[in-house]
Design goal:
Layout lengths: L1 H31 L9 E9 L2 E10 L2 E9 L6 E10 L2 E10 L2 E12 L2 E4 L4 E4 L2 E4 L12 E5 L4
Antiparallel strand pairs: 1-2, 1-10, 2-3, 3-4, 4-5, 5-6, 6-7, 7-10, 8-9
């Protein structure tokens, strides 16, 4: 009976040492492997309400890549609703806005400047290239008369 208890204790001790040895080996490998920073996607929502006009922007941001939804709901005018896909360049979002208005799908470039936690839409001279409307000179856009999108809680 004593031999069985010693045998069981010895087996348990060997098993414990085996588990500890395996665990310490994983730790050593983890310490030797350089960590790669992971990108975390964030969702941000913005809105602009001026009189009876409502504009909304929902962005999914992963690093500098941005995708999401943008809608312009102007009172007594046709709504423009669609998707954006673009990149952040410092404090500036440059994206393509693919939208449907009056049953016709169109693509136009949009540019937003981030200021004090809000986004201000830029305006300037446009031209059509390869079937989409783009700004002739994105570096000279005006942001002082643009719509201001304030940060709002996202609603799913």
């Amino acid at each position: 009976m004593i031999i069985m208890k010693l045998s069981a204790t010895f087996t348990l001790l060997l098993f414990s040492l085996f588990i500890l040895a395996c665990g310490s080996n994983d730790t050593a490998q983890t310490e030797q492997t350089p960590e790669v920073p992971s990108l975390i996607e964030t969702v941000r929502c913005y809105a602009s309400i001026v009189g009876k006009d409502t504009l909304s922007l929902r962005m999914e941001v992963l690093g500098n890549d941005v995708k999401g939804e943008l809608s312009y709901n102007f009172f007594e005018k046709d709504d423009n609703e669609g998707t954006i896909r673009g990149e952040m360049h410092g404090d500036t979002l440059i994206a393509d806005y693919t939208y449907t208005s009056e049953g016709i799908e169109s693509v136009r470039q949009v540019v937003f400047l981030q200021e004090n936690g809000s986004f201000v839409e830029g305006y300037g001279e446009t031209t059509t290239r390869n079937g989409r409307m783009v700004y002739e000179n994105p570096g000279s856009l005006e942001f002082d008369r643009g719509m201001v999108f304030e940060k709002v809680p996202c609603v799913d």
